Amino acid sequence: MNKSIVSVALIAPALALSLGGCKSDNARYIETGGKESVVSVGEVDIQDIQKAAAGMLDSLLETGVLKRAANSPAQVVMGGVVNDTSSQFDVGELTYRMREQLVNSGQAAMVTTWGGNPEDKTAQDEAKRRAFLEGNTGGGLKPDFSLTGKITQLKRNAGDTRQTTYTFRLTLTNLSNGLEVWTKTVDMSKQGKRNSVGM
User: Fold this and answer.
1) For residues 174 and 180, what is the distance between their CA atoms, to the nearest angstrom?
2) For residue 145, how many other CB atoms are within 10 A of its CB?
3) How many CB atoms within 10 Å of residue 14?
4) Along the 199 residues of the chain, how does pLDDT read in single tens digits?
5) N or C of the chain: less Cβ packing under 10 Å?
6) Element (H, E) at 8
7) Could you tell me where the DSSP H helices lie in 64-198?
């Protein structure tokens, strides 16, 4: 047998194995928050945010409290949501997912011009200008609710095994009387020795 043919016959399987091994390390698209997502023991992952948002949203819509508001759809102000964990992530990842579904459900409209730190300062300035021109010193806008929250964590170890529980809390307050009209807590617990891929 020709030496070059023998060399190719020996090298080809090794090359195929090395390429096959590299293939799994290449970047690829996965389902966001799906079973192939990275699971971090000590960090908040996208799947934690997705599950917390879905659980809270389902609870809020089921109560029917938004349908009983003075305005239709209910006008909701997004208050502060505090991230009191060691995991650095934007709490907007949680609140914007809920806001999207609330607005699209037709039960709520988000007010972005309210308060001392409005989300849309340009729109707030325009609303104030119009209210002034119309002689409405009260501003004209009377939102129904304010949505606020906090995210906390509890860490524990047993030998090499680490466990972290993240608690997502949201509260809806009636702005006309200051009463809490809805609240929800969602816990996410993760355990392991190291971060991994997959649920």
Assistant:
1) 6
2) 23
3) 9
4) 555 554 555 555 555 555 554 556 788 888 888 888 888 888 999 999 999 999 999 999 999 999 999 999 999 998 889 999 999 888 888 888 988 999 999 999 988 876 655 566 666 666 666 665 666 655 557 899 999 999 999 999 999 999 999 999 999 999 999 999 999 999 999 999 888 887 6
5) N
6) helix 3-23
7) 92-105, 121-133
Tokens of 77: 């102000």
Residue 164 region, left (φ>0) first, then alpha (ψ -120 to 50), else beta? Answer: beta
Under DSSP, is residue 71 helix (H, G, I), strand (E, B) or coil? coil
**Residue type at position 174:** N
**Domain 40-197 is found in CATH 3.40.50:** yes
* DSSP strands (E only) in the chain: 38-39, 74-84, 108-111, 145-158, 161-174, 180-192, 196-197
